[in-house]
Every structure is written in C-alpha cells, then in structure tokens.
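To: structure desk
From: M.T.
Subject: fold request, one chain
Message: Could you run this one when you get a chance? Sequence is below, nothing fancy, just the single chain.
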Amino acid sequence: MNHQNAPQYRLLAAIATLLADARDDERGDVPGWVMITLMSAVLVAGLLAIAGPALTDLFNQAISQVTQN
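Reply: Done. Structure tokens follow.
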C-alpha cells in the first residue's frame, strides 16, 4: 500500500500546509505594532502630565478621609 496516496495522509499533509501558512500570516506588521505601542505610551504620558496634579490631589483627599474616620 502506498502511504502517499492514502486519504488520511493527504488530509494530514493539507492540514500541515494550512497551519504553516497561517503561522506565517500571523507575524503581522512589526513596524505598525511598534508605532502603535509608542503612540500609546506618548498618549499615557501626556494624560499623566495633564491630569497628574488633579489625580494626586484626589488621592490625597481620599486617603485623608479614610484615615480621619
């Protein structure tokens, strides 16, 4: 019996080929992900610079209310 012509071996070969192709497609666009990560970091840093003092005051008020009671 020739194993290359058996249906289960052809099916397994086709699945292996599809998985290998899918693995190559999932690599993505590395420069795009780097840009998204950097833009997110800049956005967070900007929000902290703008809202930082207000958040610090809010935190201090909350802590003082908890410790007074």
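Reply (cont.): The longest helix spans residues 30-68. Let me know if you need anything else for the meeting.
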